[in-house]
Each structure stands twice: as C-alpha cells, then as structure tokens.
From TrEMBL:
It comes from Quercus lobata (Valley oak). This is Proteasome subunit beta type-2-A. It comes from the Eukaryota. Keywords: Proteasome. The keyword Transferase does not apply. The keyword Magnesium does not apply. Gene3D superfamilies: Glutamine Phosphoribosylpyrophosphate, subunit 1, domain 1 (3.60.20.10).
Length: 126
C-alpha cells in the first residue's frame, strides 16, 4: 500500500517534468548484417544508414551526407567520424569536451577510441 501511495504522490510530478530521450541503436544480426536505428522521444523508429542527433547533428549530418558511402572500411568510417568531431568542435559554441567512438559488428560492440579536447585535471596557468 505504501508503494501505491508513493506512486500516486509522484505521478503528477512525473507528468509535469517528463524526460525526452532520443537514441541511436546499433546492432548486428547473422542473417541481415549490421543495422542502425533512430528512436525518437515519441517512440518513432527509423532504420538508417547513418545518423546523428542533438545540436551537433546540425553540423555532422551534412558531413555524413557528403562523405558517407556504403561499404566503407573501418578506417574510412573512423576518418569520417573524426571529420564530424572536428566540425562539431569548430562550429558548435558549447561542444562536448570528449567523444568516445564505438564499433558494432559481427564480433559485438567495443570501445574503439576516445577523442579528448579537454584532459581530466588540466588547468591553464596562463
């Protein structure tokens, strides 16, 4: 009964401050191969070849449209991701300090590399 009372007390607060979540979901299927999906905050699902969201997407999607092609090697894809990161860092007023690149393929998901623009604990003395 306590849980129900607590839920009833919290329900109006949840409705006033809902969370909006967008996600890029990557996976690999033995029969169909690699897949990338975009799911937006109202649960709309789109299958994509390439994708980005958030403020940085305004700059990175144009880079992806210009340089992406099917059948890219891992090296070509990483180079394209680096171009997108450079574009975001140079054009977005408040850009994320660090980026993590992950690879999803038939062997699973793994962290590939970090792209750091701000080192932990680095303080300018100038």
């Amino acid at each position: 009964m306590l849980v129900l009372d607590l839920f009833c007390d919290c329900a109006p607060l949840i409705e006033l401050n809902p969370y909006s979540v967008n996600i890029l979901l990557a996976g690999y299927d033995k029969e169909t191969g690699p897949s990338l999906y975009y799911i937006d905050y109202i649960a709309t699902l789109h299958k994509l070849d390439k994708g980005a969201f958030g403020y940085g997407s305004y700059f990175s999607l144009s880079m992806l449209d210009r340089h992406y092609h099917s059948g890219m090697s891992v090296e070509e894809a990483i180079d394209l991701v680096d171009k997108c990161i450079l574009e975001i860092r140079s054009r977005l007023v408040v850009s994320p300090p660090n980026f993590v690149i992950k690879i999803v393929n038939k062997d699973g998901a793994r962290e590939y590399a970090w792209r750091e623009s701000v080192k932990d604990g680095a303080v300018s003395t100038a």
